[in-house]
Amino acid sequence: MKRLAPVAAIVLAAAVGCKRGSPGSSASGAPAAPQAAPASPAAAPATPQAAQPGAAPAGAAAATPPSEAPVKPVPTKLPDVVARVNGEKVESWELEAAVKQAEANAGSSVPADQRDRVYRSILDDVVTYHMLAQEARAEKLTVTPQELDARIKMIRDMFPTEDAFKQALLLRGLTADRLQVQEERGLFYQKLLQAQVDSKVDVPDADVDAFYQQNIDKFKQGDTVHAAHIFFPVAKDATPAQKAEVKKTADDVLKQVKAGGDFGALAKKYSADTTAEQGGDLGFVGKGDLPPDFEAVAFNLKPGQTSDVVELGAGYHIIRVTEKRGPRTAPLAEVRNDVKAFMTQGKRQARLDDFVKQLKSKAKIEVLV
Q: Taking the complete model, does pTM exceed 0.85, yes or no?
């Protein structure tokens, strides 16, 4: 999932019409261009701070607007090669794996009447990642074997056993070799993003101050809780035995918490959410910021209290609340970093969109389906 932002970032997102995703899920519209490094489609838990091409499957949720132009049908049986990017093959397994990841993130299959639109949107993302990886190589950026090994190990370590890891690969239509290919491409993309986008985006403090003053009403908050969680994902098509295995892992972790174990350290070790790196911290969240079932648990906990293992959304959660606050206006000193991150992301996405557009204007892209 995308990292759950603190309250300030939520209200900023609401100001521009964005919808916050739920813990352990991804539910935004499919981007015209990649917005983050691709996660392994193998991983039922998403790679930290990553997003699979097409992982935000608009087609898995929203109805096609009546005014939308008809989409060219995508054959039920895909050819081995579905596109070429400057002569480089885009193979059918890449598209299928990305679709499976999208479905896992959405928690539902792609509706039959939207299949063509979803497949074409996700194919466009996969094609774009190929193009960006090619550009990274053209700019002499490199991915070392050590970096790739570390990336694969990070994904492998998200699973309790080797069998669980292999099962996740199988469910995504991947092999170990295909996973290596995808993760190497993701690392190339990350490096290109840093070189061509992140390093060239800046938001001066004066701009942050001005934004806060101009949008002061957006920083008014109702009741909030400071929450953290540990997320144990369950694959959409998991068998009862597989689901029971995940539940047992969660129960074992809860026992460690109740025995005095460090919640943040356990979240870093066991949580499959991108918040794991922050010890599962979700920051202060208000009513309406979280899915109703998650919110019902969090707001019923007292400060310092930890929930039982609860099944919510795409898996099991252990939720802890450390503090509660009444209504107030968040001060600039507290939300400055969130405001700056929000503004930076806007500039970053605009620059990335322009960069992708420029590359596409020069690239030879052949869609073969």
A: no
